[in-house]
Write a structure and sequence with these properties.
This protein is mostly beta strands and about 210 residues long. The protein has one domain. The chain is built from one helix and eleven strands. The chain has one helix at about 1-25; strands spanning about 30-40, 50-55, 65-70, 75-80, 105-110, 110-120, 120-130, 135-145, 155-165, 170-175, 180-190. It has a seven-stranded antiparallel sheet, with no helix packed on it. The protein has a four-stranded antiparallel sheet with strand order 1-2-3-4, with no helix packed on it. The longest helix is centred in the first third of the chain and has 26 residues, at about 1-25.
Length: about 210
């Protein structure tokens, strides 16, 4: 009888530990700080803060972006928390291989939150502005090249894309490496309403711009 009781207690404890582990995995265990930036984001004259943290327990190494805004009492309050905006270091679909891109950099200047990310063949920059309680995407700048040999030469063509989401003007400019004259320029109007909010933004959205 005693053995049956001990077996039951063991099973119960194991089940509780498994549930606890699942809860941790579901909520995320973001303890390793990767980035920190301070600046005034909501134009109140006080310093706000952004943090990027990594979950080192999850094998995919996911990352979380947290934005803290200042309050009249001087304290910082969490305003935005997103695990979708930054790609995990070891995406599930890569089957244990890294994504080969460095963790994005964040900057705060003149009330604008800028995110700079590496992408295939170049990089992309997003500008977010605080408006009506949200951080809205207002500008995108993307620079790519068509190099296929692993290096850039005199035949490499660079394409710069500038997208002003407020006006809707999207401009693509092609230039050959070393040349100051554009090969071609394409313009069109693309209106996106409402403007994308940072909490809804996904790292895969880079394909949209």
């Amino acid at each position: 009888m005693k053995n049956i009781y001990l077996c039951f207690v063991f099973i119960l404890i194991s089940a509780q530990m498994d549930l606890f582990a699942q809860n941790i995995k579901h909520k995320g265990y973001y303890t390793y700080q990767v980035r920190e930036e301070k600046g005034d984001l909501n134009n109140d004259g006080k310093m706000d803060k952004i943090l990027v943290k990594m979950d080192t327990i999850d094998e995919t190494r996911p990352l979380i972006l947290q934005i803290f805004l200042s309050r009249p009492n001087g304290k910082l309050t969490l305003a935005v928390s997103s695990t979708k905006i930054i790609e995990p270091q070891y995406p599930v679909e890569n089957q244990g291989k890294p994504n080969e891109y460095q963790i994005p950099d964040f900057f705060i200047e003149k009330g604008i939150l800028t995110m700079w990310s590496e992408i295939k063949g170049g990089n992309i920059t997003y500008d977010f502005k605080y408006h009506n309680g949200n951080f809205e995407l207002i500008n995108v700048k993307k620079l790519t090249n068509n190099a296929t040999k692993g290096y850039i030469d005199e035949n490499t063509i660079f394409t710069e894309t500038r997208f002003n989401l407020i006006t809707g003007l999207r401009t693509e400019t092609d230039e050959k490496s070393g040349s100051k004259k554009a090969l071609s320029k394409r313009k069109k109007i693309v209106l996106i309403r409402p403007l994308p909010k940072i909490q809804d933004f996904k790292f895969s959205d880079k394909k949209l711009y």
